[in-house]
Specification:
The chain is α+β, with helices and mostly antiparallel strands. It has a single domain (about 10-150), classed as Alpha-D-Glucose-1,6-Bisphosphate, Chain A, domain 4 (2-Layer Sandwich). The protein has 4 helices and 9 strands. It has helices at about 20-30, 30-35, 125-130, 135-150, and strands spanning about 10-15, 40-50, 55-60, 65-80, 80-85, 90, 95, 100-110, 110-120. The protein has a 7-stranded antiparallel sheet. Strands 6-7 form a two-stranded antiparallel sheet. Helix 1 (about 20-30) crosses helix 4 (about 135-150). It is globular, with a radius of gyration of 15 Å. The relative contact order is 0.24.
């Protein structure tokens, strides 16, 4: 999909998962640290309030000692279907330097599930920067990790 103003400067990756939606959701929601960022990086969620309006706080750790905190806000938590976060709000409803809204969802498809991860950006500059940072490779690796976990369970 081409990122345009009409689609929220959207970048996305999608995968078919040979597992039922309930199993994929279990991995998405309950094993998030196992697939959230591309290996050899790892993610730790020290806070994830599973409800719209909840706080999230994830820190990503790189293989060379990199530490990247990602505080945010849960925009949607639709059990069994999707969740969405943003970095535009942190703490007690404090505005932050917004970069994107991330949406992760699943839907039944044939004998399995369709997983889609979407990043919507405030402007073309942010979407372009995200693409140049390696969106497709990075989010694609996360999608592949999620697929492998869901299909192995």
């Amino acid at each position: 999909m081409t990122a345009t103003a009409e689609n929220g400067w959207e970048l996305s990756v999608t995968r078919f998962v040979n597992a039922p939606p309930a199993k994929v959701w279990d991995v998405m929601a309950n094993h998030i640290e196992e697939w959230w960022c591309p290996k050899p990086w790892r993610a730790e969620f020290d806070r994830l309030e599973r409800r719209a309006g909840g706080a999230s706080n994830c820190t990503m750790y790189g293989p060379d000692g990199e530490v990247h905190p990602h505080p945010g806000f849960v925009l949607a938590w639709d059990e069994g279907r999707r969740f969405a976060f943003t970095d535009a709000i942190v703490g007690d409803l404090m505005p932050a330097g917004a970069f994107m809204i991330g949406i992760w969802d699943i839907a039944p498809e044939c004998h399995g599930s369709r997983y889609t991860a979407t990043a919507r950006h405030w402007d073309e500059v942010s979407a372009t920067r995200h693409a140049e940072m390696g969106f497709e490779a990075g989010w694609g690796a996360c999608a592949d990790q999620l697929v492998a976990l869901a299909e192995a369970r």
